[in-house]
Amino acid sequence: MPNIKPVSDLRNYNEVLRDIAVGEPVFLTKNGRGRYVIVDMEEYEKQRAALKLLSALAKAEKTAEEKGWLSEEDADAAIDSL
What is the dihedral of CA 61, 62, 65, 70, to 10 degrees? Predict the structure, then answer.
């Protein structure tokens, strides 16, 4: 179940920070609407790494569509030449 608190709870930020764990962010609302998310640093780094990987994969897919895909044999040969 998501941990949702009003942003005004940050007045006692130690309480809010106690509720943060890896994989369990705290969602802060302002005027009843979602506004901010507080996440554990480890979780933040994992999300950044995942986004970087997805971006690289999307770039590679675009390049492959523009320049063509390698056959399995050509890919194996390219790997073997490294």
Answer: -40
